[in-house]
Amino acid sequence: MSLEVAVAAPFKARARDRLGQGEFVVALSLEREWFSPDQAKRLVDVAVGRGLLASEDGDLVPRFDPTEVTVPEGFSPDESILREQSTFESALDAIVAAGVEKQRAVAAINERQRALAVTIEAAAVLYARERGAAVDRLAAEVREELAAEAGDGATVADDATDDSGAA
Fold first, then answer.
1. Can you list the positions of beta strands (E) in 4-120?
2. Distance (Å, rounded) from C-alpha 6 to C-alpha 148?
3. Paired sense of beta strands 53-56 and 59-62, if any
4. What is the DSSP letter of 54?
5. Comparing 74 with 51, which gets the higher pLDDT?
6. Strands (DSSP E) found in the chain
7. What gap in Å lies between CA 22 and CA 38, rounded to an integer?
């Protein structure tokens, strides 16, 4: 899988199990010349969305063992790996699959984002849950992102759940 190889390469090159996002972006864009800095940042978003990377205390941490991944000689990832769906896009697809018209869903998500002062991803997951869409994985990702940004995972995670433990 070329996404996994691209994500593993910076960790393997530095023989480390966590990297700052800037260091990760530099490794992919300037050192390997695989992506522009903006594309490398997009790769981070895609990898987090696919569960390959986690953000912990401002660092990127692989959720797999990079030492188990072989980076073939002359490997260069295809830009198509950057076209993975974002958390928002995945939530929106789940909402539409649950029977909500796309334009109506986007409008409702935007309203929730404004009213609650949360990220678009959090608003999309909240709206998806209200509509009965299956977004448990996305909800967990959004909770982790909010906790990392807030610096206090317990408070954010507890506040983001209802009495049943669902987001």
1. 19-20, 53-56, 59-62
2. 24
3. antiparallel
4. E
5. 74
6. 19-20, 53-56, 59-62
7. 11
